[in-house]
Write a structure and sequence with these properties.
alpha+beta, 13% strand, homodimer, 66% helix, Arc Repressor Mutant, subunit A, DNA-binding, three-stranded antiparallel sheet, 7 helices, 2 domains
Chain lengths: 111, 111
DNA sequence: CGCTAATATTAGTTTAGTCTAATATTTATG
DNA sequence: CATAAATATTAGACTAAACTAATATTAGCG
């Protein structure tokens, strides 16, 4: 599943925004999303699964709870895809500064 | 229409990739997309319209041709949305370097 | 072990998006 | 001005994604 397909859904984006602030249990996520979108626990759980399967989030068990965390790999793909457009809004940034700021070379070759 | 909804479609992403390399006529875009996706001129034209309407692309007339160009505004929105995740893959980059590299403060306040 | 809390899964319905086929519009040209 | 070339639009068919309702699973606890 392409990164952008995953991010195309507002509920999934909201969940990721929440996870960006730190780990959260499934119940926490359900509470927030339910309040804001008015959908069922089932629907939220399904979206969490999509995020897991697509590699945007990871889970660990804590008793009967499931603790979700953001998994940055796929989000960096999006960041990389944007590279081809950065010249449009960062026209006068020299090459070295770009390399330093975005850690591009290392990232690309290391993993 | 949310930026990510627009980018959720592979044809639209491909068109933007093409426009990232410079202006192209509708016909050029149709040729490339048709070869790679096997869809009709009509379908491509509809996608171009979506990109226009959503502010991802602009058009100008050149005789009977329509010349498309990428419009960076909406793509920067995506870049901005990613800010909240950058700490995950740029953990030791100091604040000033980030500001310089991403031109964030200026961008946010100017428009 | 039986019950409760937390979460996940499944089946089926609804909805939104993308496509094709057909047609319309616009500009240039003989 | 009639025709052709380039592109856009419309209506309707098809598909994939997201939802609900119901049920299943798993862990902790008395």
């Amino acid at each position: 599943m392409h990164a952008f397909d995953v991010l195309g859904d507002p509920v999934r984006r909201r969940i990721l925004e929440l996870l960006a602030t730190g780990e959260h249990s499934s119940g926490d996520v359900v509470a927030v999303v339910q309040r804001e979108f008015g959908i069922t626990q089932s629907a939220v759980s399904q979206q969490l699964r999509i995020l897991r399967d697509a590699g945007f989030a990871s889970v660990r068990a804590d008793g009967t709870r499931r603790i979700y965390a953001v998994e940055p790999r796929r989000l960096r793909e999006v960041d990389d895809w944007l590279d081809r457009f950065r010249a449009f809004w960062l026209p006068r940034l020299d090459a070295l500064a770009t390399e330093v700021a975005r850690g591009k070379r290392k990232r690309r070759h290391r993993e």
